[in-house]
Specification:
The chain is built from 2 helices and 4 strands, in the order βαβββα. The radius of gyration is 11 Å and the shape is globular. It is of the alpha/beta class and about 60 residues long. Strand 1, helix 1 and strand 2 form a beta-alpha-beta unit.
Length: about 60
């Protein structure tokens, strides 16, 4: 489960650049996520963007898989 952690509160598409590179090599890795300090939570191009206060949800969802 690849996770990129950022301190910014505004989403930038560059946040997912390293995750995309990682997924190209390890395509069987599940649930790539960006944890950041912004309020907006969503999924785009298979990458989940989550507020740091809710990052436990990423771990919980991986345990169910």
């Amino acid at each position: 489960m690849p996770i990129e952690i950022k301190s910014a509160s505004t989403v930038n598409q560059e946040f997912s650049r390293n995750l995309k590179k990682f997924m190209a090599i390890a395509s069987d890795a599940a649930a790539p996520s960006v944890v950041y300090s912004g309020k907006l939570e969503y999924e785009s191009n298979g990458i989940r963007y989550v507020n740091f206060k809710h990052c436990g949800q990423i771990l919980e969802s991986s345990e169910k898989s």
